[in-house]
Amino acid sequence: MPRNKSDLIVFDMDGTLIDSMGCLEDWIYRAIKDHCAPSVTPAAVTAAFGPTEPKIIEAFVPADKVAACLDAYYGLYEAEHGRVAVYPGVGELLRQIGLRGIPMALCTGKSRRAVDISLARLGWENYFKFIVTGDDMARFKPDPDGLNQIISRGNFKRSRAIYIGDTLADMAAAASAGMLSGHARWCCPAPPAGAPEPSYELAAPEDLLALI
User: Fold this and answer.
1) Which numeric CATH code is attached to 8-19+86-211?
2) Which pTM was predicted?
3) Fewer Cβ neighbours under 10 Å: the N or C end of the chain?
4) Whole-angstrom distance, CA of residue 165 vs CA of residue 1
5) CB 186 within 8 A of CB 194
6) Which strand (E) or helix (H) includes residue 78?
């Protein structure tokens, strides 16, 4: 990706921009624990991550309890959002990309409602030109459906777009979409096991700025 030749930068959200995975596990587990099998553990919740939170909850509780569990989850999400941390340097990264006029997008498996809460709480509502959530996807990462939607909406050139993420699914989705990829090592130093080799290993958010 030659310097100043990026037409689009797409970010994953949880585990890439914000340190939230432990919070999500806790909130979902607390929301479902009174309605699921005793054998369900927080670790089992984490293992189910990939689709939206409603889909995860549906996998653990009876159908007639899903709505109540969702209400409990989103209540915790809003009330305890202060537990969510922005990774050091990420706020300035987004600000600098915005100043340079490079379009940014989000492609995340989490629900639209949760995304909207986080963007409002973080003051990021105006950073992202395109947002695709798990609610918008017919197929979840590592399928490239979400990334393809973003590329199509903006008519971007795939070879000049990059997806920044932290997981095997993120790297695989970018590869399948024909996009460049960046492994956000500021949240997970070890490369995702079995993932396609990313186009760039980014030790810190400022490393992305150096590319663009």
Assistant:
1) 3.40.50.1000
2) 0.93
3) C
4) 16
5) no
6) helix 66-79
